[in-house]
Amino acid sequence: MVKKQPTLAEIAHGRSGDKGNHANVAVIAYTAAGFEWLQQNLTAMRVMEYFAPLGPSRVERFEAPNLLAVNFMLYDILAGGASRSLRLDNQGKTLALALLQMPIERPGNLRSMRRRSTRSQRSEVRGQKAVHL
User: What count of other Cβ atoms lies within 10 Å of the Cβ of residue 122?
Assistant: First the structure.
């Protein structure tokens, strides 16, 4: 059986939007193990190379460990911004979705990075006693 190459979407979700002619892209890991992977592997350079066809002038990365997130500022990626750009996504709203489609090397602990299913979360809740405040 051939395993398909995983994408960033298997270990994280994201949000993005415009800041004038620049875009802000947040990638939020589902788990602490996923965040550790993001810290080590999802660099500003890698994001810049991934979005090279859109022509960012530079990319900065910021970490938000309390959110298990890394945030990227992509400068000059919106071809002028919302009121000037003729691009379909002139506000950068789809950039997070695009980044989440990035193929990644299969980590040995991929299972521990994935979002837990609703079924397993319900099982855990049923196994716990209710706490009344």
Answer: 10
